[in-house]
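BUG: 3D viewer hangs when loading the predicted structure for this chain

Environment: internal workstation, default settings.
Expected: structure renders.
Actual: progress bar stalls at 90%.

Input used:
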Amino acid sequence: MDEGVDPTQMCQALVQKVAQSKQLLTVADPNILLLFESWLAELEEEVVAYLREHPTGAAVELAESLGLSRSGAAFLMAKLGREGKI
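Structure tokens produced before the viewer hung:
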């Protein structure tokens, strides 16, 4: 009989993810983080500029125009919308 979610498995998965995050933090180069943040800021500026020119633009159109995945475009649009930038 299926009783739904197994809390033990959920806890084990969470512990594994936390361990992975800690491992990544120990090897991450701060300069890489700065480069990523800079790249993301530039990409967000491109999204804002595109949407100013195409105010009814959809994520699909944005993705095609900027060479992003559809999910990436949708994520950026939602993020910028939450931040009040679009």
